[in-house]
Amino acid sequence: MKNVLITGASGDIGGQIAKSFLAKGYFAILIYNAHTPKIEHKNVCAFKCDLTNEYELELTIKKIYSKFGHVDCLINCAGVSLFGQIQDLTEQQYQFVLDSNLKSAMFATKYVSKIMIGQKSGKIINISSMWGKVGASVESVYSASKGALNAFTLAIAKELAPSGICVNAVCPGLIKGKMNAHLNKAEIGALVESTPLGRIGTPKDVADLVVFLASDKANFITGQIISVDGGLGGNSAF
């Protein structure tokens, strides 16, 4: 049985990703911090860990390796959003967003890749955002953190390729869930209108792509930043 390690599985997208992997016969290892993932399944094991604390994360991944022996796929899905003008940004907010969205993925990759290098195989998939590619007004720090995550993906894909490890990023657009709670009906309507496919995406739309990238069918795909946004990211009208 293959093991998938998922951070941020208590969120809408992360939770669906976990469920989709379970449906494919994977064993899901979940790392969470503030919110316990609400996924009841015999093939699930959860570990509490502050992903922004490198020492705590290293110990947690060592426990996971000791218990399970191998990690076939890492999904870096943990993250936070920040909505507001740059003039109102505090240093604490900036640091929290960068730590949550970038540092956590970088250090999870650091320690899990050591396992995968020994295996000479593995898949790492970073959940980024459309805004990391095109930028979002009043979400500058969030956009910057996801843009940096995309750059990290491109770099680490080259670094880990000789060990047979594929690294890609998935960039969701407007997806139904709590992360878009700050948008009102008019704002959501404008985004939907600017989306060529004419609808809001679902967590399953994202999870389907992630599961594909983790499969053997994607063994020659690495170093890619792939959008799942209904065409919104390529539409200058928004």
Blueprint (SSEs and pairs):
Blueprint: E1 3-7, H1 12-23, E2 27-32, E3 44-48, H2 54-68, E4 73-76, H3 91-119, E5 122-127, H4 131-134, H5 140-160, E6 165-172, H6 185-193, H7 203-214, E7 224-228
Parallel strand pairs: 1-2, 1-4, 2-3, 4-5, 5-6, 6-7
Helix pairs in contact: 1-7, 2-3, 3-5
Give the N-to-C terminal Cα separation.
44 Å
Please indicate the percent range of residues in DSSP E strands (runs of 2 or more): 15-25%
CATH superfamily membership, which one?
Answer: NAD(P)-binding Rossmann-like Domain
Supply Rg.
17 Å
Residues in helix, %: 40-55%
Mean pLDDT: 94
Strand order of the largest sheet: 3-2-1-4-5-6-7
Low-pLDDT runs of 5+ residues are none
Give the helix/strand class.
alpha/beta
- Which CATH architecture would you pick? 3-Layer(aba) Sandwich
Examine the coordinates and then state which fold CATH places here, giving the name of the CATH topology.
Rossmann fold
- CATH class identity: Alpha Beta
**Number of discrete domains:** 1
SSE succession = EHEEHEHEHHEHHE
Q: What is the 3D shape?
A: globular
- Count of discrete alpha- or pi-helical segments spanning 4 or more residues: 7
The description of the largest β-sheet is: 7 strands, parallel
Description:
The chain has 238 residues and is α/β, with parallel strands linked by helices. It has a single domain, classed as Rossmann fold (3-Layer(aba) Sandwich). The chain contains seven helices and seven strands, in the order βαββαβαβααβααβ. A seven-stranded parallel β-sheet has the order 3-2-1-4-5-6-7, with helices on both faces. Helix 3 packs parallel to helix 5. The protein starts with a strand and ends in a 10-residue tail after the last strand. 42% of the residues are buried. The model has no long low-confidence stretch (mean pLDDT 94).
